[in-house]
Design a protein that fits this description.
CATH topology of one domain in chain A: MetI-like fold
Number of helices of chain A: 11
Low-confidence stretches of chain B: 1-7
CATH superfamily of one domain in chain A: MetI-like
Distance between the termini of chain A: 42 Å
CATH superfamily of the largest domain in chain B: Periplasmic binding protein-like II
CATH class of the largest domain in chain B: Alpha Beta
Helix content of chain A: 55-70%
Helix content of chain B: 25-40%
Structural class of chain B: alpha/beta
Order of helices and strands of chain A: HHHHEEEEHHEEEEHHHHH
Number of strands of chain A: 8
Radius of gyration of chain B: 21 Å
Strand content of chain B: 15-25%
Largest sheet of chain B: 5 strands, mixed
Number of domains of chain B: 2
Mean pLDDT of chain B: 89
Oligomer: heterodimer
Shape of chain A: globular
CATH architecture of one domain in chain A: Orthogonal Bundle
């Protein structure tokens, strides 16, 4: 009974807040509602994964911002995880120099505020690059300058479909091979060199397919025309700075988590593995890491969430993420602060919950199954 | 300085809280609150020479700042009773809507969207401006029509951002916008070579050019691509306050037109026989009382802040490093657009 009263009070309070807000907005002559999402935006955005122009709607601008946020978060999470695992294992290395260097990395980057690191990469490092006319050239067709990192863009031609098809076929073949190898080992105890054979299949099949179809791929090479390079692909310095700052910063936390996870596995496990005749590599891979993952995954989830949320610092360096484009430009051009901030908060909440959900599922898979 | 992102989000949050909780709007509440707290809270630019910029002693100067001071002089009789809130373009309207500031005087363009959908009123035009482009002379560009393919640094949340989109679309040219939250950041990015072009209102181009490493190497292109009437802004629904802000600005323009300035105003007040002058300076009639301020409000403005010409000269004209000509901002009788309704 009491609980029903509490829930009722909360709901009534919420309804009151919403009504009061609408009343006040109306009495102050401030527009409200979500109609603005379909009106024309009129401003340009530097980087967009989907078709976007000044004639697109504010709703479209929202998707551009959201996809840019997801892009930087996804790449950032991958880079931070790889770097974090390497540094974390390195810190436990028996090599004095490697261990100390890893420790120095962690202590440095973990203890400097992320925003400062972002400014360091963006203003101090990337702003020092040369102008487009004096670009640093790598090979003949890769250029690095203050406007970004320009690489040739692959342009598929007729018959290109064969190559992705070969890749898919390769992946399927590798999956089947792995299952077969496991079964063989279970039955006969004979291991099979899955890794080498898989690598051969994954690289060999697409190459064969490309050769068979006569390499149906041309390259769109960036070219200095007028003010800037045109053609090719470009990685803008804002994205570079954001990726560097986010992944280097988060990697230092992940490294500590990895170290803690590995140390949580009793040393007796390693000794037992050695005494069974396993070499150090397989010991780490088959005995220590699987047990360490149970300790690592839950705190790793929080780091992924942090990285995603920290990507909103993009607004400070002109990277067009959700906060910069939607909670920034769109908010200001429409003046509809409440709607825009509410949508933005809802989006971050949704993204965070999805990441959490996925990591919890993964955690459950990795958890100790008691029989 | 660099936490503007968080600041703007918090401003937005405060604005929401303000709107969530606020009671109904009462006419006259801004005037009452200004009188009871004893100062005017005025939103200004975070740093734009000539318009609103803190000098080395932390003293705010500029033509927008003078409008805030004029309002304080009219309402409180003391032009120094102003507290300034530096705001980015993005934060300005939320700060005003939420009641964090009493008035906004921050080189803000008067547009129909802002008047109609943001719950604010523009109280007049302090400065008639237009958007232009700043480029490095090295590029050899002579006209904005040659900017196809350029990267352009711009401040977010401005009409500038939209005008630029329109201009390039209309002329079928490509461009890459690099969007910063503060004018200073956009200029720094332009100066370091991140962009080929910096675009903003022309007055700002001249002002920001002073801050570049070598101002002589940069050129303001001749094209003016938009109308940018910049003026003070107040909240809708408080006509009393709207009136006094509007008339403080008109008072400065009228004073110039009638030849009264901070040097001669005390003398003229003692000796004048001209009825129009007597009305202006509050010797005859109750114009001030009707506006809910003291009758010598114009005298206070002119003696403490100066007339429009003085403010213009000292901040953006010949007496300043900007050295901008009066142009559109000359009085109507000198061929400009500055025209104030009479004090009658």
């Amino acid at each position: 009974m009491f609980q029903i009263l509490v829930v009722g009070a909360v709901v009534a309070f919420g309804v009151y807040i919403v009504n009061n807000t609408l009343d006040n907005l109306a009495s102050r002559g401030i527009a409200s509602g979500f109609d603005f999402l379909s009106s024309e935006a009129g401003f340009g955005i530097i980087q967009s994964l989907i078709e976007y122009s000044e004639a697109s709607s504010y709703g479209r601008a929202f998707w551009v911002g959201l996809l840019n946020t997801l892009l930087v978060s996804a790449i950032g999470i991958i880079l931070a995880t790889i770097l974090g695992f390497i540094i974390g294992v390195a810190r436990l290395s028996s090599n004095w120099l490697v261990a100390k260097m890893a420790a120095a990395y962690i202590e440095t980057f973990r203890n400097i505020p992320l925003l400062l690191q972002l400014f360091f990469w963006y203003f101090a490092v990337l702003r020092a690059l040369p102008s487009p006319r004096q670009s640093l050239v790598i090979g003949d067709s890769v250029f690095l300058n203050i406007r970004g990192f320009y690489t040739p863009r692959p342009v598929p031609e007729d018959g290109f479909w064969l190559i992705p098809a070969a890749i898919v076929a390769g992946v399927v073949a590798v999956l089947l091979l792995t299952r077969w190898a496991h079964r063989r080992q279970d039955e006969t105890g004979q291991p099979f060199h899955v890794v080498y054979v898989s690598a051969g299949i994954l690289i060999g099949l697409p190459v064969l397919a490309a050769a068979a179809s006569g390499f149906p791929l041309s390259w769109d090479i960036p070219e200095l025309r007028g003010f800037n390079f045109t053609g090719g692909m470009v990685l803008i310095p804002e994205l570079m700075a954001l990726l560097l700052a986010l992944s280097i910063y988060t990697a230092s936390f992940i490294a500590e988590i990895v170290r803690a996870g590995i140390l949580a596995v009793s040393h007796g496990q390693t000794e037992a593995a050695y005494s069974l005749g396993l070499r150090p590599g397989p010991t780490l891979r088959l005995v220590v890491i699987p047990q360490a993952m149970r300790v690592i995954i839950p705190p790793l989830t929080s780091q992924f969430l942090n990285l995603t949320k920290n990507s909103s610092l993009a607004a400070a360096i002109a990277y067009p993420d959700l906060v910069s484009v939607f909670a920034g430009t769109v908010l200001n051009q429409t003046g509809q602060a409440i709607e825009v901030i509410a949508i933005t908060m809802a989006v971050y909440l949704t993204v965070s919950l999805l990441i959490s959900l996925f990591m919890n599922w993964y955690n459950k898979r990795m958890a100790l199954v008691e029989r | 300085m660099r936490t503007s992102t968080r600041l703007s989000v918090s401003v937005a949050a405060v604005a929401m809280a303000g709107i969530l909780w606020a009671g109904p709007v009462n006419a006259g509440q801004t005037m009452d609150s200004v009188k009871s707290k004893g100062f005017v809270q005025c939103g200004v630019n975070t740093g734009l020479p000539g318009f609103s910029n803190a000098d080395e002693k932390g003293h705010w100067r500029g033509i927008d700042v003078d409008v805030c001071r004029a309002v304080a002089a009219a309402v409180l009789g003391d032009a120094t009773k102003v507290k300034f809130t530096p705001l980015t373009a993005k934060e300005r309207f939320t700060a005003l809507q939420s009641g964090e500031i009493d008035m906004l005087s921050r080189n803000t363009t008067w547009t129909v969207t802002r008047d109609a959908a943001l719950g604010v009123h523009f109280a007049g035009v302090t400065y008639y401006d237009g958007q232009g482009f700043l480029v490095n002379k090295k590029l050899g560009v002579k006209s904005a029509k040659e900017l196809d393919g350029a990267s352009i640094c711009v401040q977010t949340g401005t009409t500038t951002e939209l005008n630029m989109g329109d201009y390039f679309r209309a002329n079928k040219m490509q461009y890459t916008p690099v969007v910063f939250e503060k004018g200073d950041e956009a200029v720094a990015a332009y100066d370091s070579g991140r962009c080929d072009v910096f675009t903003s209102d022309q007055s700002q181009l001249y002002a920001q050019r002073i801050k570049l490493k070598s101002p002589k190497n940069h050129l303001v292109l001749p094209e003016v691509i938009s109308k940018e009437p910049l003026g003070p802004v107040v909240r809708q629904g408080d006509d009393e306050w709207f009136n006094i802000v509007k008339w403080s600005l008109f008072a400065m323009v009228n004073a110039e037109e009638m030849g009264v300035n901070s040097q001669n105003v005390a003398n003229i007040r003692k000796t004048t026989q001209d009825p129009a002058m007597k009305r202006l300076l509050g010797l005859e009639g109750d114009k001030g009382k009707d506006l809910k301020v003291s009758n010598d409000w114009v005298f206070n403005i002119v003696s403490q802040v100066g007339n429009y010409a003085e403010s213009f000269e000292r901040n953006v004209g010949g007496g300043s490093p900007l050295n901008i000509a009066r142009g559109l901002n000359a009085l109507w009788k000198d061929g400009g657009l500055q025209y104030a309704p009479p004090v009658r």
